[in-house]
Structures are given as C-alpha cells and as structure tokens.
Design a protein that fits this description.
It is a single chain. The chain is α/β, with parallel strands linked by helices and about 220 residues long. It contains 10 helices and 7 strands. The protein folds into 2 domains: about 130 residues, 3-Layer(aba) Sandwich (Rossmann fold), CATH 3.40.50; about 90 residues. α3 packs parallel to α4 and α7 packs antiparallel against α10.
Amino acid sequence: MQTLQDIYVNTGDLHHAYILEGSPQGVVDELCLFCDETLQVSPRGNPDFVCEVYDKFLIDHARRLRELQQNKTLAGGRKIFIVAFNFITREAQNALLKVLEEPTKGTHIFIVTPSAHVFLPTVLSRVTVVRSTAHAIDAAAETFLKSSYKKRMEYITKLTKDIKDEKASKAEAVVLVRGLIQTLHKQAKDKTSFTKLRELDRINAYLEDSSASVKMLLEHTALIV
C-alpha cells in the first residue's frame, strides 16, 4: 500500500482503476485506511464508498459494479469502489472491461486479488497494477521452493490448521500457488520447469472449486516443486 500512497503523494492524482496484488482482506483494510486518511473519503456510512469482498467474482458482480458507478455522487466528490476476490471468471473480466473503458468522472476502482497474473491483457492495459506486496509474495514463494519437503509440510499444516476461516485459508493458498507460478516463470529454463508450471496452473484452477481440499492441493504442490 505504500506504493499507492507514494504514487498519490508524488502526483496528487489517481488513475481511474488499479489492481493491487495481495491477500484480499489485508489489502482491503489498508485501502480503507488510505481512503479515509489520505483521500479524505470516509468508508463509514458513505453511499459514495462501496467495498465488497467475494471468493469468486462473477459476471453479475461486474454488471452490478457497472450500474453503481454510473450513479452521480451525492457530494460531487470522488466515488470509491473496492472489489476484492480470490478468483474471477473470463466472462466477468469481459464485463468488467466495459466499466474500465468508460469510467464515470470522479470514479476510482480498486481491484484486490492475489495476483494480476490471471487477468486478460485487455484488462491489464486499462489499469495500473500496484505490486506493493509482490516482493513479499515472491519471497514467500522462494522460501517455499528452497525449503525441505518436511518444512513445506509443516508450513502447510500450520496454514490449514491455524486459519479457521476456510475462505481465508484458501486465499493464502492462492497467494502461495500464484507466487510459485510467477517465480518459476522467471526461472523456467528447461522441460522440467515447464512441466511444474503446467501442474501449478492445474492446481490454481482446482482451487477455484468450492469443494476442493486446500490441504491436499498444497501437499501436491509441495511434491511437484
């Protein structure tokens, strides 16, 4: 979030749309503080401030966002929309694209998700990607890759036992797997690396299934990397 703060302080302006990488709930809390203290837009009792957190962002959610952002502000100031999710469908991205192409005046949209890696190039071309947490994500992925199998399993056990909220546990799993994908993409040099990437892409897709076992998928991740 420091990066977004720096951008605003240095330029005095905001782009109409951002993608912020990181664990959704943690980044949302920081964003609300940024809006309240820096932008002077209160998150509390303010019809011009909308914050919604989903597990999976669907086409109906994108259409609703489009409708809401077309409304005029009550005070003539900024309209803030924060949407956070672990997954987004291709159909939702295409619907979201219409919002990003023709934003209403004074509207700022903050999209929070574990990784910008999942977005279509057409979406990415219309937003500013803030990778304020990218270093932490890469560091976590690199630590996981360098750890012994025993250490990886200890980490997985701790993750799945300590985080009681299933959605929060899955969000952390998504951050790890997508971090591993990003890290291995940078390091990929041979057939083995690309085989691992294909398997990680499959795991990432399986994590979208609400009935998927996070522990089993992470244990498989520990084996293949």
